[in-house]
Structure formats: C-alpha cells, structure tokens
Amino acid sequence: MTKMKVQVPKLILLGFTATLVNGAVDCTFSAVSDIMPQGLSLSFAQHIPENGTFTVPKNDTGWPTDPINLPELCAIGVMVPGETSNSTFGFGLFLPKNWNQRTLTVGNGGLAGGVNWQDMGTGVKYGHALFSTDTGHNGTSTDATWAYQNPQSQTNWGWRALHETVVYGKNITEAFYNSKPAFNYYQGCSTGGRQGFMEAQRFPDDFDGVIAGAPAWWTVKIPVSMFDTIGKEVLRQCDGQDGLVDTIIMDPYGCNFNPETLLCAENVTDTTTCLTASQLGTLDTITRDYIGGNSTMVFPHWLLGSEHFWDMNIDGGSPNVIGVGYIQYFLGLGADWDWRNLDEAVVQLSEQLNAGQADASDYDISPFINAGKKFIHYHGLSDGGIATGASFYMYGHINRAVSPQGINLHDSYRFFPIPGMGHCTDTADYVNAPYYIAGISMTNNGQYSVPGYHDAEHDVLYALMNWVENGTAPDYIIGTAFSNFTTQDSITRQRPICPYPQQASLDDHAANMDSNFSR
Ligand SMILES: *[C@@H]1O[C@H](CO)[C@@H](O)[C@H](O)[C@H]1NC(C)=O
Ligand SMILES: *[C@@H]1O[C@H](CO)[C@@H](O)[C@H](O)[C@H]1NC(C)=O
Ligand SMILES: *[C@@H]1O[C@H](CO)[C@@H](O)[C@H](O)[C@H]1NC(C)=O
Ligand SMILES: *[C@@H]1O[C@H](CO)[C@@H](O)[C@H](O)[C@H]1NC(C)=O
Ligand SMILES: *[C@@H]1O[C@H](CO)[C@@H](O)[C@H](O)[C@H]1NC(C)=O
Ligand SMILES: *[C@@H]1O[C@H](CO)[C@@H](O)[C@H](O)[C@H]1NC(C)=O
Ligand SMILES: *[C@@H]1O[C@H](CO)[C@@H](O)[C@H](O)[C@H]1NC(C)=O
Ligand SMILES: *[C@@H]1O[C@H](CO)[C@@H](O)[C@H](O)[C@H]1NC(C)=O
Ligand SMILES: *[C@@H]1O[C@H](CO)[C@@H](O)[C@H](O)[C@H]1NC(C)=O
Ligand SMILES: [Ca+2]
C-alpha cells in the first residue's frame, strides 16, 4: 500500500492553451450538406442557442431525454447507408460555437440503439465537438430482438458503427471549423466501456485518450442469476477491516467475511432477515468466480460490498434480461430459449460465435501505448451489474500482454477502482461514497464537471486531457459525494481514488477530509 498525502483542494480553474475556434460554416441544412463526406446523407442540421435544449428525434429511442442548458451549438444528424438496410447506421454531432479544438466521442449503454444525446449534452459543455453513434439500430437498453439473425446489425453494435462515426465525425468537424482537431478523446461506461477497450485494441489511431468505465467487455460470458441483499452485514464486518470505520469498504479483496453470521437460527419462521443454508449456498456461488469446463474462467464474481446493487441482475426472480436476450437473439437460440437451460454448451457456443465481434479481449494494446496514447479505466467496487472482478482480470491480462514487451503499463494505462460505487454511477445510501468523478455518464442533465472544482484533480476528463496534452499522469482522482447527487447542491465528502494496485492511505486523513466538507 502506498501512502499519499492529499491537500484539501483549492478552487483551480483550468486554463486552456488551445485557442477557441468559431464555426466557419453556418448551421443551415444546405451549408452542412455541402460538407458531408461522399455517400453520407444529412438528416438534419439545427442551430441551438446559448442555454438551449435539443429535442431528441421521436424515433431515436435509446436516449430519449432532451439535453438542456446547452452552449450555443450546431446539432447534426447523419445517416450512413450500408449495402443492405441492416448495415445502415446513424450518428449525431454537437458542434459548439466556441470550440476548444478537441473532439469527444461518447459511448452507448446496454443494448441500446440510438445516439447518446444525453452524454453529448454533458460533454459539449467542456467545449469539445461531440460525436455519438446509434450503433445501427433504434431500441431500448434491454431489447435484443433486433439482433436475431441479423449479423450486420450485430457487427455495427460490436464495433463498426462507432469506428466509422469517429472517422466521419473528424472529417465533418474539420470541414465545419476549417481547422483540424488537435486532440481526440473518448469516454463511455458499461457497453461504452467495452467500446473504449475495443477502439484502443482495434483502432489505436482513433483517439489520443480513452476513458472506459465498468466495461461490459466480456460479451461471450454470461451473468448468472442473483439473490438477496446482505450488504449491511458485509459492511458491518468489512468496513473496519480496512483500518477506518467510515461506511466505505476500500479493499473488498482484503475483507475476511464470514457469511455464517447470516444463517437463520433454528426454527426461525421469519426468514426475511436471515439466510437459510441453501440460500447461503447461492451466496457462495455469487461471490465466487464462475469456472467452466477445463478450468476456464467464465466470469469473475461480484465483490463484497456490491450487494445493494445485485437487484440489477434479478428481474422478477430471473436473470437480467440483457443477458438472456443476448443468448436468445445474438446467439440465435430464439425467443423460446429459457434461462434455466443455461449450460456449458451455451457458454461454448457463445465463445465460438463471438457475435458481432464485440468481445474486447485482445489484451495486447501495445500499438495504442506505443503511439503515445493514454487510457483511464475505472470501475465501481460495488458494481452489481458488471462484476468488478472482470476489470481486475482485464488489468492483469493487459499487464501480462504488454510488460514482457518492455512497456511500463502505469505510464500509459491506469485502472481506478472506485470504492462504494455501483454500476457506472450511484452509491448505497448507507454508504454515501464519494464516487463522483464527472466527465460524462455519471452527470445529470444540464450539469457538468464538479461544481467549484473544474480541474484535473477532480474531473476524470480534465485528468485525461492533462495526461495526454501535458504528460501529467493522474496519481489520484478526488471523488466527490453530495448531500443530493441529483441537485449537487452541497458537497459532503471528498476522497482520493488511487490507481490499482495502490490504495489511498487510511490514516486519519480521510476522516479529516470528511469533516472539512461537512458544510
Ligand atoms: C472528408 O472526406 C472527403 C471524402 O468523402 C474528402 O474529400 C475530404 O477531403 C475529407 N475532408 C477532410 C477535412 O478530411
Ligand atoms: C437557462 O434556461 C433555464 C430553463 O431551461 C432557465 O431556468 C435558466 O435561468 C437559464 N439560465 C440562463 C443563464 O439563462
Ligand atoms: C417513427 O416510427 C414510426 C413507426 O415505426 C414510423 O411510422 C414513422 O415513419 C417514424 N418516423 C420517423 C420520423 O422516422
Ligand atoms: C433511428 O431513428 C431515427 C429517428 O427517427 C432515424 O433518423 C434513424 O434512421 C433510425 N436509425 C436506424 C439505424 O434505423
Ligand atoms: C435483416 O435483419 C432482420 C431482422 O431484423 C433479419 O430477419 C434479416 O434476415 C436480416 N437480413 C440480412 C440480409 O441479414
Ligand atoms: C425447534 O423445534 C423442534 C421441533 O419442534 C424442537 O424440538 C426444538 O426444541 C426447537 N428448538 C428451539 C431452539 O426452539
Ligand atoms: C475441454 O477441452 C477439450 C480439448 O480441447 C475439448 O474437446 C472439450 O470440449 C473441452 N470441454 C469443455 C467443457 O470445455
Ligand atoms: C496543461 O498545463 C498548463 C499549465 O499547468 C495548464 O494551464 C493547462 O490547463 C494544462 N492543460 C490541460 C489540458 O490540462
Ligand atoms: C434530490 O433532489 C431531487 C430533485 O430536487 C429530489 O427529487 C430527490 O428526492 C432528492 N433526493 C433526496 C435523497 O433528497
Ligand atoms: Ca472502511
């Protein structure tokens, strides 16, 4: 464990070295049409005034919320026709009037089809030009039916639509401002995290820096069904084991947890507050890695402290519909396939098909690293959706792939496990973890960055920019908790989040930081 002193942060406003550039092209349909690359068709070009709202097109169902409080910008919708209607995809751009000469591509979530207008609305407040793809279909996060016997759409969702969106997006941006983007960035979480790894693995030229959160990268693996919440008992046992009773489990792997304390006493009739012996067996299954035939890892376990969020994986007693839909429609087993029939053969079929080539398990990212690019990876230690163990597994395998090539991984890629954070955002109210590190995807509509702390110490996007553009690596990112995370009105806690394998030192410093922020 590395000790680290962290000053109580001061308000630092980030001074940008890039000059602001104004659009060289009017935001009219005909002017924007003229700068479209060959073969693309413009759906709309719409001028949004300062502090305006963008109205999401009606059938664009992936992110239907209208982003508000926007800076003045040009909103653009583009269709990329494919050889068949199944291979067609669309993408959106927000090109701000005052442009900082950077681009930011945002990722998608779950199985959703649609332009992520919501995260674009957050990202454009930083001054970047924003891109997002619809991944080739319109649909909600849990709907997989579009994928059935539709390999073109699977490939679009797997990797193609995002990559081509970036290539076209840079082209359109340069023509719009008559100036080439100086730096290109990416951020996404969950499916968006998978997309970030995929890009770094396959298309190292696309971005100078990537932020990938809670990557659902292991698409060929299958989440198993979940059970009840026992989080408070885990917290009771594990909280103090990291050296500080503060409702936060800093090191779930370091906790020696005894589940037997949850066992129902003899003859107990109310089993809502305890677990039966067979329920304890289920708990063991959940908190252990899923090892398949021939001792292969099928999927890592959920960590201690994630119990509050396990309900992400139960849906009326059956497993998460995303996982089930994936098997039914991506693997082609059809709507009649029942999750109770999950067996080794399904796991093997999944490995073999690698539907849409979406599996981001090419661990050798040396071309990305050798080109001087930077990668920030984060994952909530309390994630009940994508097991955090998958990120530790990913880190370990990337390290094993690049270290023998003489690469010091820490110089280019850092993994920040975030204590107490659920899937991409959120904390249990009995934990109140300072997890918020801004960027896109954990920020509410109309907001951006950390109020009062628009800087590289507190905001992961600024941290990445500082790393890429100044060579200043993030040794920590300070997470923030608010009394109400929705309104972000008052800060209750701030804590450094350290890159793995370091951990913030747990002397009385953390407690001091808490008291400094109880205002
Ligand atoms: C954009 O792509 C078109 C081809 O479709 C090409 O002619 C043009 O030069 C490109 N523009 C930029 C700025 O890259
Ligand atoms: C921005 O618009 C909102 C309504 O969406 C309004 O309440 C607010 O006062 C406006 N802010 C500024 C600075 O004009
Ligand atoms: C929206 O979807 C409906 C039903 O699929 C279709 O009839 C309509 O033409 C679509 N509208 C647009 C603007 O694409
Ligand atoms: C999704 O819906 C939007 C809005 O109606 C439409 O413009 C777009 O073509 C659709 N995307 C796909 C891939 O069908
Ligand atoms: C296109 O997708 C539909 C399902 O949305 C599927 O039935 C059809 O076979 C696909 N066509 C091709 C050529 O893959
Ligand atoms: C549990 O129930 C059994 C059978 O009714 C009884 O013999 C036993 O004494 C009970 N144990 C306790 C601890 O109440
Ligand atoms: C184990 O490996 C053997 C040899 O590669 C293979 O034939 C078999 O299908 C594997 N079994 C499982 C359950 O993965
Ligand atoms: C680079 O460093 C300078 C000097 O500290 C700072 O003003 C600037 O904001 C940094 N750039 C980025 C992108 O963080
Ligand atoms: C936080 O604020 C939102 C919006 O005002 C409100 O709906 C919500 O109930 C508040 N949450 C708590 C825990 O107070
Ligand atoms: Ca603790």
SSE layout:
Elements: H1 29-34, E1 41-48, E2 73-80, E3 89-96, E4 102-106, H2 117-123, E5 129-133, H3 151-177, E6 183-189, H4 191-202, E7 209-213, H5 231-238, H6 277-286, E8 290-291, E9 297-299, E10 314-315, E11 318-319, H7 321-330, H8 344-353, H9 366-370, E12 374-380, H10 389-402, E13 413-418, H11 460-470, E14 477-482, E15 491-497, H12 509-516
Parallel strand pairs: 4-5, 4-6, 6-7, 7-12, 12-13
Antiparallel strand pairs: 1-2, 2-3, 3-5, 8-9, 10-11, 14-15
The structure holds 2-acetamido-2-deoxy-beta-D-glucopyranose (9 copies) and calcium ion.
Residues 51, 68-69 line the site of one 2-acetamido-2-deoxy-beta-D-glucopyranose.
